[in-house]
Amino acid sequence: AISYDVDMINPAFSQYHITPAQAKNLLPGRLSFYEDPDLLAMGITQAAVNSDAFSDDWNRGHLAPNHIISFSNVSKKSCFSMANIAPQAGYFNQQPWNALEGKVADWVASNEELFIITGVAYRSREAPTRTSNNIAVPDYYWKVLCQPTSGEAVGFYGYNNLTTKTTIDFVPVTDIEEIYGGSLLPTSMCKTAAVNKNYWW
Predict the structure, then answer these.
(1) What is the biggest distance separating any 2 CA atoms in the chain, rounded to whole angstroms?
(2) What pLDDT is attached to residue 132?
(3) DSSP 1
(4) pTM recorded for the entire structure
(5) How far is 24 from 22, CA to CA, in rounded Å?
(6) Bridge partners (DSSP) listed for residue 10
(7) What CA–CA distance (Å, rounded) separates 90 from 79?
(8) Which residues of the chain have pLDDT under 50?
(9) What is the full DSSP assignment across 14-83?
(10) Which residues pair with 11 in a beta bridge?
């Protein structure tokens, strides 16, 4: 499921549930990006596929990544909707963030199901950096994980700019909630205030 941020012309976050069986059976390859038909039907502005907001420097950043969602033709196609895409700095997208997404997929395949939320955040919603066609450029990408049986949870975030060589480390989900500006996971199910690093990778 995707929460779309109309003011920023970007997704706010994407949430999804992945099982080991799904993570072990991913369809290969990439598909073409397409404008989201639901947003079109509602008259909501979204980034065009060929928008000049995207380039070698600024990639089309998936919130729900192709690498972990491609367990069916329908789920794989949904990754390439522009409702799931925000500007992401090229190095950040292709190096540390891509590595994180690979670790998450490998962990699920070898361990247990996860609830995952991936989103973006801004230092200032009132005055965000915008492209020439008014698409906001997120200052952060973030991700939170929760394993519902154990309750173990963890967060990650990175700086989305062209100059910072971001490194990504484990943080409590509460740190991500502060960056995002709201609650993300239920404390009745997920241990949001602390991280057990030995549980993960």
Answers:
(1) 47
(2) 87
(3) -
(4) 0.96
(5) 5
(6) 5
(7) 18
(8) none
(9) EEEEE-HHHHTSPPPS----B--HHHHHHT-----TT-TT-SSSEEEEESS-HHHHTTSHHHHHHTTBGG
(10) 4
Strand order in the sheet with 10-18: 2-5, 10-18, 114-121, 140-146, 153-159
Look up residue 158 and give its two tokens.
């990175």
Q: What is the pLDDT of residue 165?
A: 86
CA distance 85 to 46: 9
Q: Which residues sit opposite 3 in a β-bridge?
A: 13
How far is the CA of 189 from the CAs of 3, 18, 150, in angstroms?
21, 17, 9
Q: What is the pLDDT of residues 30-85, one digit of tens each?
A: 999 999 999 999 999 999 999 989 999 999 999 999 989 999 999 999 999 999 99
* H or E element, residue 90: helix 90-92
Residue 67: its pLDDT value, please?
A: 85
* Among 140, 108, 130, 182, residue whose Cα is nearest residue 8: 130
| Cβ atoms of 143 and 155 closer than 8 Å | yes
